[in-house]
Amino acid sequence: MKLWQAPARVLPVTTRPFGGETVISYTRRLSEANALGPTAVLRALGEVTHGTGRHLLDRDALLNGAALHRLEALTGLPSRRLREALPALRSPGATSLASGRPVVRPFRLRLAARPACLGCTQRRATTTALVHATIATRVCYRHRHWLEGRQLSIAPAPVIVHAHTRCRHLLRTAGHAWAASVVHEATSITATWALDSDRWHTRLAERWRTRAQRLGVPTSHPAVRLPETVALAHVMTDLDWRRHVALTDTWDLASVHRNVARQTGATSATLVYRGNDAFTSWVRFHRARFAHRREPGMLMPWVTRPLPEKGLFK
Question: What is the β-pairing status of strands 130-131 and 152-153?
């Protein structure tokens, strides 16, 4: 009889999952806490469709309903809490798995999972947990740690924690996948600004230099630029603003650039007059995408014609 065919009972030692943790990381930690082989709990959940070797430990896994019920039984945690913590359990792909028996289907992540906060793992006296490498899991609020790449304390710069909170709110309210893509665009823009900020964006250069010194990292570190990146992403996800940028006449674009400069601290004159600035290039690309919807004088206040639905300008 295989492990997944045996009755499921609560393990002698259980532990809670980390937010954003992979299913395989969580089951590995349960196995190690109970002095079992690394994949023992995973194999006890259901029939693993792609082998059960150690090569699975860098992946995540989908569970069908029967396998999820076994995970509930083994951990003593309700499925609601497990779904909240383990993103793979919320994946629509689980519905395609066979339902006649418990099934576990490992899959490779697009981005390699990153270690959870070391402060949290030490606090729980557990081995390192692996969490999805997403925008929403870059900061540990309890310990004020930046988790992307080498972990570091961002307590000396609380503005970064506040910016990450704003970013997570943006992801929830604007639609996670689309908002995440815009945050990546904003990250690329601020990274380009940082390359020559002493010349073109002097206020940002001084701000980032001070912040980097507090954290003890180079000014190129993404945590240093996060507040400005999130501020820019908030502007770029505003559908009214995106529609205005797409439809307005060329002469009015200077006001668009000045608004972004006010929101982010970038130099207004650079955005207005430097043709190869990263944000200016994004504006050109955005306008080119929707050139077929633009008519001369479309946004003039004395011209009364219905505007396209703003949701079309994502």
Answer: unpaired
Quick one: residue 51, left, alpha or beta (phi over 0 = left, psi -120 to 50 = alpha)?
left
Q: Average of pLDDT values for 289-312?
A: 73
CB atoms under 10 Å from CB of 157, counted, come to 21
Q: Which residues contact 127 (CB under 8 A, 6 or more apart)?
A: 28, 29, 32, 121
The model's pLDDT over 72-124, given as tens digits with 9 standing for 90+, comes to 999 999 999 999 999 999 888 776 777 778 999 998 888 889 999 988 888 87
pTM for the model: 0.84
CB 231 within 8 A of CB 266: no
The amino acid that residue 305 corresponds to is: R
What b/e readout covers 133-147, taking b as 16+ CB neighbours within 10 angstroms?
bbbbbbbbeebbbbb
Q: Are 296 and 232 in contact (CB under 8 A)?
A: no
